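2024-03-11 09:14:02 INFO worker-7 job=invfold-0412 stage=load source=structure_tokens
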């Protein structure tokens, strides 16, 4: 049976190994490590099966230029290759979004697969006049899940992840 819970300090080495295993170049593992030490307000969950961490998801604060509204950015999310395609990533996303919705977070952005994230309520961000901070990102890959439409900046703007992401992109 799988459990999703908040990441704990004792999970850090396991989560690092998970990210190194799930991603080819290791930049995601380094990013997660860096964000833990430099970012206040991050939110991380792990999926645990039979006592083993098999999945991880991280949310960090994001801003929109010209607005004082703070949302969250989903990145990275990782599942051990041996446990992929079993719905673990989907459960992590749903769990994280529900937690953020209940906490009053107005929106969550993601730079990801346009075939995957819409099932969780993500839409093309340009529909809300939100643009990605990085040049050349395909419109369909930059998405937003609006959790509180009234709090979303009406004028839109450039959505910015934390500076630590610049090194990983």
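2024-03-11 09:14:09 INFO worker-7 stage=emit residues=169
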């Amino acid at each position: 049976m799988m459990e999703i819970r908040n990441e704990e300090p004792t999970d850090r080495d396991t989560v690092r190994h998970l990210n190194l295993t799930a991603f080819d170049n290791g930049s995601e593992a380094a990013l997660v490590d860096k964000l833990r030490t430099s970012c206040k307000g991050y939110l991380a969950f792990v999926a645990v099966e039979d006592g083993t961490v098999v999945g991880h998801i991280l949310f960090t604060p994001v801003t929109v230029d010209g607005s004082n509204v703070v949302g969250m950015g989903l990145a990275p999310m990782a599942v051990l290759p041996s446990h992929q395609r079993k719905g673990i990533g989907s459960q992590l996303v749903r769990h994280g979004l529900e937690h953020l919705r209940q906490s009053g977070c107005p929106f969550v952005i993601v730079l990801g697969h346009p075939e995957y994230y819409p099932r969780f309520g993500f839409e093309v961000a340009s529909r809300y006049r939100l643009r990605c901070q990085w040049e050349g990102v395909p419109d369909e890959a930059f998405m937003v899940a609006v959790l509180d439409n009234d709090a979303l900046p009406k004028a839109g703007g450039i959505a910015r992840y934390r500076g630590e992401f610049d090194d990983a992109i």
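2024-03-11 09:14:09 INFO worker-7 stage=report msg="Strands lie at 2-6, 43-49, 52-64, 70-79, 107-111, 123-124, 130-132, 142-146, 157-160."
2024-03-11 09:14:10 INFO worker-7 job finished
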